[in-house]
Automatic annotation (TrEMBL):
Necessary cofactors: Zn(2+)
Entry protein name: Hydroxyacylglutathione hydrolase
Species for this entry: Altererythrobacter lutimaris
Role: Thiolesterase that catalyzes the hydrolysis of S-D-lactoyl-glutathione to form glutathione and D-lactic acid.
Stated family: Belongs to the metallo-beta-lactamase superfamily. Glyoxalase II family.
Complex formation: Monomer.
Gene name, Swiss-Prot/TrEMBL: gloB
Alphabetic keyword roster: Hydrolase, Metal-binding, Zinc
Length: 251
């Protein structure tokens, strides 16, 4: 059975090590902080053999070189990561990546950046989504366009609802405040927001999340909901998404 080790790094990132006990292989999902990743791998008795980058931003690929120097890991990444690091294998939508006997599907989730990808492991029921979607939020649209980003979120929405989503930042309390502003009558969201406050008060992470809960509460995944479309405007979901994203940027 695959093992996921999650740990905090930088100011609000989460790091993830994905380990296959049978093969002994370990993938670093993004590399915000090489020292922390190497230390966490050492604590677990694991050697990082692969790096799976989701996108090029330094808080996701900035540790690539140091981890490779220390472990000899191979870098698997979208082409855009070449902006800050060499890569060993370029991947894009429709490709697959293996960790031992487990296979991850590469999904285009561009919008935050134009080459952003996610890794979905159907057998394990998990997806590493980087900054494309967060608990109750989504990434800022630094490089993409609203239709592009909405199409990306639609690909995430199409995964099995029981899929566990490992997103890369602890932004959930702030996201919840905007979500309640965007969709104040959503009873499931109100309950979720209280759960988030309780978890953070206890010093617990709100990541990972489960897709089913996000489908019911995350306004960015619900931009095709008629009530939200009526409130936020737009004749198409991507237009409603654009309105929500712009409002969140200025919230």
């Amino acid at each position: 059975m695959l093992q996921v080790h999650q740990f905090p790094c930088l100011s609000d990132n989460y790091g993830f090590l994905l380990h296959d006990p049978d093969s002994g292989q370990t993938a670093a999902i993004d590399t915000p902080d090489a020292k922390v990743y190497l230390a966490e791998a050492e604590k677990k008795g694991w050697t990082i053999t692969q790096i799976w980058n989701t996108h090029w931003h330094p808080d996701h690929a900035g540790g690539n070189k140091d981890i490779v120097a220390a472990s000899g890991a191979k870098i698997i990444a979208p082409k855009e990561v070449e902006k800050i690091s060499e890569i060993d294998r370029e991947v894009s939508h429709g490709d697959t990546v293996n960790l031992g006997a487990f296979t991850a599907d590469v999904i285009d989730v561009s919008g935050h950046t134009n080459g952003h990808i996610a890794y979905y492991l159907p057998e394990a029921g998990i997806a590493f989504v980087g900054d494309s979607v967060f608990a109750l939020g989504c990434g800022r649209m630094f490089e993409g366009e609203p239709k592009q980003f909405w199409d990306s979120l639609s690909r995430i929405k199409a995964l099995p609802p029981e899929t566990t989503l490992y997103c890369a930042h602890e932004y959930t309390q702030a996201n919840a405040k905007f979500a309640l502003h965007a969709d104040p009558d959503n009873a499931a969201l109100q309950t979720y927001s209280k759960d988030i406050d309780n978890r953070r008060a206890a010093g617990k992470p709100t990541v990972p999340t489960v897709l089913a809960r996000e489908l019911a509460t995350n306004p960015f995944l619900r931009a095709d909901d008629p009530a939200l479309m009526a409130k936020w405007g737009g004749d198409a979901p991507h237009e409603t998404f654009a309105a929500l994203r712009a409002a969140k940027d200025n919230f």
